[in-house]
Amino acid sequence: MSRTLPEPVVESFDLTVILGALADPGRRTILRAMYQAGGPVDCATLVEKAGLGLSNPTISHHYRVLREAGLTRTVTEGRRRIVHVRTDEVEGRFPGLLEAILAAPERG
Questions:
Q1: What is the rounded CA–CA span in Å between residue 26 and residue 34?
Q2: pLDDT per residue over 70-86, tens digit each?
Q3: What DSSP designation does 75 have?
Q4: Alpha helices by DSSP H, the chain
Q5: How far apart are CA 96 and CA 100, in angstroms?
Q6: In what order do the strands lie in the sheet with 41-42?
Q7: In this structure, what is the dihedral angle of CA atoms 36, 11, 26, 87, given to the nearest 10 degrees?
Q8: Mean pLDDT for the chain?
Q9: How remote is the C-alpha of 74 from its chain's centroid?
Q10: Which residues lie across from 42 on neighbouring strands?
Q11: 7, 66, 74, 92: which one has the fewest Cβ atoms less than 10 Å from its Cβ?
């Protein structure tokens, strides 16, 4: 049985909260990897591919911040968590935002 974790509705998206969530380089890396995947991904698989080297509690925190900002949707399937970027919803509210922030490679 799957269930979607709580997330804000599109009408309540706050640009300040979204930009705050994206201010952290780790969260940008996670979201960029999801965005470039183009569809739902398993949380554990994505973190391995991103190679962040962060602890599990830190990674869980990053996923929660992204979800609570409205940037991602998380569906639990047993012990797995499937996550995807809410591209259409974010673009509907803030056109061009995700493309501007996530399409370009991270600068070091």
A1: 13
A2: 999 999 988 889 999 99
A3: E
A4: 15-22, 25-37, 43-50, 56-68, 87-93, 97-102
A5: 6
A6: 2-4, 72-77, 80-85, 41-42
A7: 0
A8: 88
A9: 9
A10: 82
A11: 92
